[in-house]
Specification:
disordered C terminus, Arc Repressor Mutant, subunit A, mainly alpha, globular
């Protein structure tokens, strides 16, 4: 990270200007062709300011995508909210649908960014799912590993099926999710991690 206090209001405003310029430019050109000077020219800020906030454009990309997905997730699953089972998976899938559509639109479906989007989304989904498995911290090491595998399987499954849906969008997101949820829940139950209340 850069040299400024990330919680300073002025720093937050500056980062918003930089990230807005960045996403606007990504709709026009490939990430690999984009220079820091291009970004700062669009943001109408001095190039040196960039390095007060980011190490390079790769960190800017990671933090921009991460921030956008965090906002979308927080709207569906506010911090401190306790969700489990079907309700949690439904809201996670809705968040991914919304984020995937918005990012694809903003970034003009640039292929060079698809892997970065995927990695970021999978990691955040994994973190949310694991945090909802409150009992994990009390499990023996072997059981904890199994639970982490399950969280990985869920996050990858959600992301993969949403990307497939997003390519065609033959039905509304809500309808698509209701079709997919029973299969996902059924697979999870076979792992014997659910009780009668569908909690994990």
């Amino acid at each position: 990270m850069g040299l400024v206090n990330p919680n300073d209001p002025r720093a937050k405003r500056t980062r918003k200007y930089i990230q807005k310029a960045f996403t606007d430019l990504l709709a026009e050109m490939d990430f690999e062709d984009l220079s820091i000077q291009d970004i700062m020219d669009r943001a109408e800020l001095n190039r040196a300011t960039f390095y007060n906030h980011y190490q390079d454009k790769y960190e800017l990309l990671e933090l921009t995508m991460s921030g956008a997905f965090t906002e979308t997730l927080s709207a569906r699953i506010p911090p401190g909210t306790r969700m489990q089972g079907t309700e949690l998976l439904r809201n996670l899938m809705l968040a991914v649908c919304e984020w995937q559509i918005e990012m694809t639109k903003q970034l003009n479906a640039r292929r060079t960014l698809s892997q970065a989007m995927e990695d970021n989304a999978k990691q955040q989904l994994y973190n949310v799912i694991l945090s909802c498995m409150e009992h994990v911290k009390d499990l023996p090491a072997e059981e904890r590993r199994k639970t982490e595998w399950v969280a990985t399987m869920i996050s990858w499954s959600i992301y993969g099926v949403v990307v497939k849906w997003c390519q065609r969008q033959e039905e509304p997101a809500e309808q698509f999710i209701e079709h997919v949820l029973p299969f996902l829940m059924s697979n999870l139950r076979t792992l014997d991690l659910h009780d009668s209340k569908e909690e994990f």
